């Protein structure tokens, strides 16, 4: 998959089937849209393309207003978004820098300069509520008319539902904020995870008896707290661990977001390695403690709970099929105690 920062140059402007959106999380609704774009591209002999934005437009406007609380929490970093788009069969992604100039484009200017001249769009799919141009003045009806004038076809994708719930990035953010990782997985179509390169930290965890690998989180994540996790990318299979995702209020006052992961019974160096942290169960919210001793005791409890979670999961996996209600109840009771 080719990735462009901004519109591609003349040599890379192959005619394409395009979809446009933020694609935060690339949930099942997004996946349905990507599958339709891929199918259209194949049938028309075009490249399948996505235009997305960095930063998120709502984040840009929140920063401009000076009120960052209006910016949406991020489900995924750009690396994870691009990987999910590639897995969806996309040939190229245009990561458009959302800035003052882009935000000021009229719908007509966006159509002519971006879609027609910049991307050579021949087929376009958007959501039913798609808006574009300055002050969101353009809508799907205007886009259909523009397509007739400029020679591209426009389709819309109906809302994708999970039961009666609309599958959306907002819905995914809500389940993550609530710590409901099962519901998050149902909306995404896979377990929730964050990837990143392991960086050097303050080495405080090592002095407390819980060495951690650290991943920098550049945006406000949609979930925070203490979690049971497993780590991919360091061994043949996932490694069991406990993790903290937050601002470390007991030991740091800068508001810097960090993902700290303590892998059980693992002592190999891993600085610089790319890992994926898969979130399995939320244990509690992040707290500020009066001193390091209190913090250390809390970490001990978190680690014990996480180990118990893995032990209960492994016991369920190892139990013979049809082992009876009593065994199943015992396994559930072990989980409920966590």
From TrEMBL:
<keyword id="KW-0418">Kinase</keyword>
<dbReference type="InterPro" id="IPR023465">
    <property type="entry name" value="Riboflavin_kinase_dom_sf"/>
</dbReference>
<dbReference type="GO" id="GO:0008531">
    <property type="term" value="F:riboflavin kinase activity"/>
</dbReference>
<keyword id="KW-0808">Transferase</keyword>
<keyword id="KW-0274">FAD</keyword>
<dbReference type="InterPro" id="IPR015864">
    <property type="entry name" value="FAD_synthase"/>
</dbReference>
<comment type="pathway">
    <text>Cofactor biosynthesis; FAD biosynthesis; FAD from FMN: step 1/1.</text>
</comment>
<keyword id="KW-0511">Multifunctional enzyme</keyword>
<keyword id="KW-0285">Flavoprotein</keyword>
<dbReference type="InterPro" id="IPR015865">
    <property type="entry name" value="Riboflavin_kinase_bac/euk"/>
</dbReference>
<dbReference type="InterPro" id="IPR002606">
    <property type="entry name" value="Riboflavin_kinase_bac"/>
</dbReference>
<keyword id="KW-0067">ATP-binding</keyword>
<dbReference type="Pfam" id="PF06574">
    <property type="entry name" value="FAD_syn"/>
</dbReference>
<protein>
    <recommendedName>
        <fullName>Riboflavin biosynthesis protein</fullName>
        <ecNumber>2.7.1.26</ecNumber>
        <ecNumber>2.7.7.2</ecNumber>
    </recommendedName>
</protein>
<comment type="pathway">
    <text>Cofactor biosynthesis; FMN biosynthesis; FMN from riboflavin (ATP route): step 1/1.</text>
</comment>
<feature type="domain" description="Riboflavin kinase">
    <location>
        <begin position="187"/>
        <end position="311"/>
    </location>
</feature>
<dbReference type="Pfam" id="PF01687">
    <property type="entry name" value="Flavokinase"/>
</dbReference>
<keyword id="KW-0547">Nucleotide-binding</keyword>
<comment type="function">
    <text>Catalyzes the phosphorylation of riboflavin to FMN followed by the adenylation of FMN to FAD.</text>
</comment>
<comment type="similarity">
    <text>Belongs to the ribF family.</text>
</comment>
<dbReference type="InterPro" id="IPR023468">
    <property type="entry name" value="Riboflavin_kinase"/>
</dbReference>
<keyword id="KW-0288">FMN</keyword>
<dbReference type="InterPro" id="IPR014729">
    <property type="entry name" value="Rossmann-like_a/b/a_fold"/>
</dbReference>
<dbReference type="GO" id="GO:0003919">
    <property type="term" value="F:FMN adenylyltransferase activity"/>
</dbReference>
<keyword id="KW-0548">Nucleotidyltransferase</keyword>
């Amino acid at each position: 998959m080719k990735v462009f920062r901004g519109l591609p140059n003349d040599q890379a402007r192959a005619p394409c089937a395009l979809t446009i959106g933020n694609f935060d999380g690339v949930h099942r609704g997004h996946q349905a849209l990507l599958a339709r774009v891929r199918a259209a591209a194949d049938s028309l002999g075009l490249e399948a393309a996505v235009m997305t934005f960095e930063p998120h437009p709502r984040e840009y406007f929140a920063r401009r207003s000076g009120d960052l609380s209006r910016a949406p929490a991020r489900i995924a970093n750009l690396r994870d978004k691009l990987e999910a788009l590639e897995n969806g069969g996309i040939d190229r992604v245009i990561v458009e820098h959302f800035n003052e100039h882009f935000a000021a484009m009229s719908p007509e200017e966006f159509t002519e300069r971006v879609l027609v001249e910049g991307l050579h769009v021949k087929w376009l799919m958007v959501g039913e509520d798609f808006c574009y141009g300055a002050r969101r003045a353009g809508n799907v009806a205007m886009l259909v008319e523009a397509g007739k004038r400029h020679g591209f076809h426009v389709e819309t994708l109906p809302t994708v539902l999970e039961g009666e719930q609309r599958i959306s990035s907002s819905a995914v953010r809500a389940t993550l904020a609530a710590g409901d990782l099962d519901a998050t997985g149902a909306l995404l179509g896979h377990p929730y995870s964050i990837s990143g390169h392991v960086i050097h930290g303050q080495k405080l965890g090592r002095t407390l008896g819980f060495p951690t690998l650290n991943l920098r989180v550049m945006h406000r994540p949609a979930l925070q707290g203490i979690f049971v996790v497993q780590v991919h990318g360091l061994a043949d299979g996932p490694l069991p661990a406990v993790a903290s995702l937050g601002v470390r209020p007991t030991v740091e006052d800068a508001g810097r977001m960090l993902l700290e992961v303590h892998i059980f019974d693992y002592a190999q160096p891993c600085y610089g390695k790319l890992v994926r942290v898969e979130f399995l169960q939320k244990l509690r919210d992040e707290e500020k403690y009066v001193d390091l001793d209190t913090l250390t005791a809390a970490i001990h409890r978190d680690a014990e709970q996480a180990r118990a979670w893995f032990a209960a999961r492994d016991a369920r996996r190892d139990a013979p099929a049809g082992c009876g209600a009593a065994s199943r109840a015992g396994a559930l009771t072990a989980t409920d105690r966590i």
